[in-house]
Specification:
Shape: elongated
Largest sheet: 4 strands, mixed
Number of domains: 2
Strand content: 15-25%
Number of helices: 9
Distance between the termini: 58 Å
Structural class: alpha+beta
Order of helices and strands: EHHEEHEHEEEHEEHHHH
Number of strands: 9
Length: about 200
């Protein structure tokens, strides 16, 4: 009997599971059997999904937070790169972490708090809300980790290698805020390139 038939598509922690199982004595054993049968899908210790029919992006913040999706995962979500992305990359205020799940690998990168809250959007997939970087914020997050970007030419060359969609539009104010918060040469070069050329595509 599927105890989730009336509430499919949920993310459930161990406390909620114990509440759902009510007076059952061997709750741990029941949870283990449900995982074995596929009725529960383990995301990490004490956290479960009730179905596989959920966009994997929905789990990122629950697996490790606070966090929001960024980097190539956000580029792909916004339709800015042609390649499929097989690792879900997020930004966190906590220590970097990595989790392997049946939905794929979730990797979390730490950033300064000064840039964390800039340019993030709340979206909903499969009935579950999550946070994701705007195209501009994802670009700033990603290029901030490129030590070889030291000039506007480097920025445009890097953008070409990333194969961004030619329709990529950038928000100058978001870049300015990230430039100040990150304090990284690559982000400063990005700002100069956008101010001079109006974008980063050649």
């Amino acid at each position: 009997m599927n105890i989730f038939k009336d509430n499919p598509g949920e993310i459930i922690d161990s406390l909620r599971m114990k509440d759902i199982l009510g007076d059952l004595r061997d709750k741990r054993g029941k949870i283990a059997r449900m995982i074995h049968s596929g009725e529960l899908i383990k995301l990490r210790r004490g956290l479960y999904a009730t179905t596989r029919n959920i966009n994997p992006l929905c789990f990122a913040a629950s697996i490790y937070g606070p966090s929001y999706i960024s980097f190539e995962t956000a580029f792909s979500y916004h339709g800015l790169i042609p390649e499929a992305v097989y690792e879900i990359s997020s930004i966190t205020l906590n220590r970097p972490k990595e989790f392997e799940t049946v939905f794929g690998r979730y990797r979390y990168h730490a950033v300064p708090e000064a840039v964390y809250y800039i340019g993030i959007e709340r979206v909903t997939e499969s009935g579950i809300p999550f946070l994701i970087a705007s195209p501009t914020k994802a670009l700033c997050d990603r290029i901030a980790r490129e030590p070889g970007v030291r000039s506007m030419t480097d920025v445009r060359r890097w953008a070409e290698l990333m194969r961004f969609d030619s329709k990529l539009e950038l928000d100058l104010e978001t870049i300015r805020a990230c430039t100040k918060g990150y304090g990284r040469p690559a982000v400063r070069c990005l700002l100069r390139a956008v101010e001079k050329y109006g974008g980063i595509m050649t």
